[in-house]
Design goal:
The protein is α/β, with parallel strands linked by helices. Helices cover 31% and strands 20% of the residues. The protein folds into 3 domains: 155 residues, Adenylosuccinate Synthetase, Chain A, domain 1; 92 residues, Adenylosuccinate Synthetase, subunit A, domain 2; 158 residues, Alpha-Beta Complex (Adenylosuccinate Synthetase, Chain A, domain 3). The termini are close together.
Length: 428
């Protein structure tokens, strides 16, 4: 398994950024394959902190980085992120970054629509308001503007006309100003020369890379429980976040995705609305949020916190074909006298071991807990299994048993090197 696919196995925010950055040392190419700039990855390298939303994490280490066709791209945000990293000493040019020429663009109209819909909704989903959902709608509606279209004025004009026919009535219905096709054309024409140098057939590059025996790291965004098909619908993102999307969202093909590594926190968090069976509203929940610094990279919103939910992660293991997990933020539960793990749920007098699809059923779940003794020692910065307290080892081993997957990596702080390796995912 020369390639590795990294996905979040909960509701996102599991610490994928650090692990992808750490694994980039073993990779030649890093690929983003879904989502948009609604994702947030924080990389801590020494005394420098990098916050990425759209760029693959490999750019920080100078690895060839590809934004695949499964990503919806706000070109103005992409340029601003490139500029921001340049100010931090990371210079990004076409030799380092490749943008799939068949990726679809997020336009200002998408952002307007996203924000207006959320403001008007009674039951808010918790969207970031960055236009990701409406951009995916236009993609499947076959009216999206793709990166390659920026080089073809005639194609752009025809596509803007088609977009106007769709967005005009929507904007009027939501009380938004009329869409200005000429203004959008001018904006795209001005921006195109800055974006097009990065545009290439990503699928072809990946095919050549794999045939040359180079290692590819596929970097997922959000988490499996936010998948538009398999997550807590409708409180999900607008893309497929499961490991299978790495193939479709990059063009490499299913056999190329390799070892699937699920990133899992030692507890559970979620941003925005939707079901959360193990959510805590007491001092333990406050402890997890404060010590874990649980605030969204993109939105700044406080994350909801709760006990580790083994039933949910077990579901993610099955949906993603996870070979092993990377367990993060173990140090955040240091000092808690008692730890609880959710092993399943009570629903209408019966015990079930998975999250049902229906909203009413999800809301009616009562978690079934197993209690374990905590530890007073610190795990922060541990770089060896021997450095962990005995009860921390028991906690990790019990998680492995309950989710049906081994821990391949254990992260004990945001620092890149504070990682215990049990199994190298890139091992052939």
């Amino acid at each position: 398994m020369a390639n590795v696919t990294v996905i979040g196995a909960q509701w996102g925010d599991e610490g994928k950024g650090k692990l992808v950055d750490w694994l980039s040392n073993r990779a030649d190419v890093v690929v983003r394959f879904q989502g948009g700039h609604n994702a947030g990855h924080t990389l801590v390298v020494g005394d420098q902190t990098y916050k990425l939303s759209l760029l693959p994490s490999g750019v920080v280490q100078g690895k060839l980085s590809i934004i695949g066709n499964g990503v919806v791209v706000d070109p103005w945000h992409l340029l601003s992120e490139i500029e921001k990293l340049g100010a931090q000493g990371v210079n990004i040019g076409p030799e380092l970054l490749v943008l799939a020429d068949n990726a679809c663009l997020i336009l200002p109209w998408h952002r307007d629509l996203d924000q207006a819909r959320e403001a008007a909704a009674t039951n808010k989903i918790g969207t970031t308001g960055r236009g990701i959902g409406p951009a995916y709608e236009d993609k499947v509606g076959r009216r999206a503007i793709r990166v390659a279209d920026l080089a073809d004025r005639e194609a752009l004009e025809a596509k803007i006309d088609r977009l106007l026919a769709h967005h005009g009535p929507l904007r009027r219905g939501l009380g938004l100003p009329e869409a200005d096709g000429a203004a959008l054309m001018a904006e795209l024409t001005e921006m195109a020369p800055k974006i097009l140098p990065f545009a290439k057939p990503a699928w072809l590059m990946l095919d050549e890379v794999v045939k040359a025996g180079r290692r590819v790291l596929f970097e997922g965004a959000q988490g499996a429980l936010l998948d538009v098909d398999h997550g807590t619908y409708p409180y999900v993102t607008s893309s497929n976040t499961v490991a299978g999307q790495a193939a479709a969202g990059s063009g490499l093909g299913p056999k190329g995705t390799g070892y699937v590594l699920g990133i899992v926190k030692a507890y559970t968090t979620r941003v925005g609305g939707g079901p959360f069976p193990t959510e805590l509203f007491d001092e333990v929940g406050q402890h997890l949020g404060t010590v874990g610094r649980e605030f969204g990279v993109v939105t700044g919103r406080a994350r909801r916190c709760g006990w580790f939910d083994a039933a949910l992660v077990r579901q993610s293991v099955a949906l993603n074909g996870i070979h092993g997990i990377a367990l993060t933020k173990l140090d955040v539960v240091d000092g808690l006298k008692t730890l609880k793990i959710c092993t399943g749920y009570q629903l209408d007098g019966e015990e079930i071991g998975y999250l049902p699809a229906g909203l009413k059923a999800q809301a009616a779940l009562t978690p079934v807990y197993e209690e374990m003794e905590g530890w007073s020692e610190t795990t922060q910065g541990a770089r060896s299994w021997r450095d962990l307290p005995a009860n921390a080892v028991k906690y990790v081993r019990r998680i492995e048993e309950l989710i049906g997957a081994p821990v391949a990596l254990l992260s004990t702080s945001p620092q890149r090197d504070d990682t215990i390796l049990m199994r190298d995912p890139f091992q052939d």
